[in-house]
Amino acid sequence: MEQHIVTILDISPVTHDVKRFKIRKPKGYTFIPGQATDVAVNKPGWNDQLRPFTFTALNDWDHLEFTIKIYDDHDGVTHQLGQLRAGDELVIHEPWGAIQYQGEGVFIAGGAGVTPFIAIFRQLREDGRIGGNKLIFSNKTQGDIILEPEFRAMLGPNFINTLTDEARPGYDHHYIDEVYLRDKVKNFKQHFYICGPDPMVAALQPIIRKLGGESVIVEL
């Protein structure tokens, strides 16, 4: 399995617990928007601890980018990532992943599960193909929403936010379930892209198919 040792160029906050990692790009390295790669921290004891993270840059950028939620409640890989600084190194492998754009549809994300959709929507915007694509995004609180201003600028009213742990003006306050989808989606004969916590992804697939959805794309 081919791997690359890459230098971190910059780290910046996105939300209170999400960081953007700007990474030096290996020559000739390409991926399809929506794909991920296995990443490790290039330090003793951690360089064999691989975790999957999604590219949030585009291929024509001169660097790679990851948008990563940091979990500081235990000393795991993301906690280690949260301690890194510009100049530190990561180990990345070859791109992989099943979530790729297959046509206009409804994107459903829970929390950090939105990351595969970041590069997809950025590429669609660059290509002038945003069209009628819709993003339904579930988070615990408004402060957890990743890249809210950018998604609003790209999608306008087709960026729909629902919060599960707080009620706020301008945001829905509801879990994504059958009742919610019936209200928000009028046409189920289109593509559905789902990424989020495993229980959410597992629960939504049969609901969408029950409602008539025939094309449900999830990470395998």
Write up this protein:
By secondary structure, the chain is α/β, with parallel strands linked by helices. Helix content is 22%, strand content 30%. The protein has helices spanning 77-83, 115-127, 148-155, 178-184, 198-210; strands at 3-13, 18-24, 36-41, 51-54, 63-69, 89-93, 105-110, 134-139, 159-163, 191-195, 215-217. The strands form two sheets. It has a six-stranded antiparallel beta sheet. A five-stranded parallel beta sheet has the order 9-8-7-10-11. The mean pLDDT is 96.
Could you name the key traits of this structure?
alpha/beta, 5 helices, 6-stranded antiparallel β-sheet, 220 residues
The secondary structure category is alpha/beta
Determine the N-to-C terminus distance: 20 Å
SS elements, strand count: 11
- Round the Cα radius of gyration to an integer and report it: 17 Å
| Unreliable runs | none
- Please give the order of strands in the largest beta sheet: 4-3-6-1-2-5
Q: Helicity range of the residues?
A: 10-25%
Summarize model confidence as the mean pLDDT.
96
What is the succession of H and E elements? EEEEEHEEHEHEHEHE
What's the helix count? 5
- The 3D shape can be described as globular
Query: Strand fraction band?
Result: 25-35%
For the largest beta-sheet, the strand count, sense and barrel status come to:
6 strands, antiparallel
